Amino acid sequence: MFARVSTYRGDPAQIETGLARVREDIIPRVQQLDGFKGLQYLVDRESGKSLSITLWETEEALHASEEAANRLRSESAEASSATVEDVERYEVAVSS
User: Fold this and answer.
1) What is the pLDDT of residues 45-63, one digit of tens each?
2) Domain ranges of the chain
3) pTM of the predicted model as reported, rounded to 2 decimal places
4) For the domain bounded by 2-91, which CATH number is listed?
5) 2 beta partners
6) What is the 3-state secondary structure (H, E, C) of the chain?
7) CA torsion sign, 22 to 26 to 28 to 31?
């Protein structure tokens, strides 16, 4: 399994707006991508920092989803007036 970790920074007051967009629009769209295995969205309500972690069945699925992920990431950030600080990719070595 493989993971894409995106880091966002924005106004803490806009977190709920961003989360609503993720729940209502982003998740249903990312679930339709081939090889999608799961999504976690972590927030620090004090600092406005958040992380999204998407899980992919194979490295090929991770790479094939890049264009859609770029678009969805931008839309998610825009919804909460945040900026994308970083995007990293990992192999999931251990999961329970």
Assistant:
1) 999 999 999 999 999 999 9
2) 2-91
3) 0.91
4) 3.30.70.100
5) 56, 91
6) CEEEEEEEECCHHHHHHHHHHHHHHHHHHHCCCCCEEEEEEEEECCCCEEEEEEEECCHHHHHHCHHHHHHHHHHHHHHCCCEEEEEEEEECCCCC
7) negative
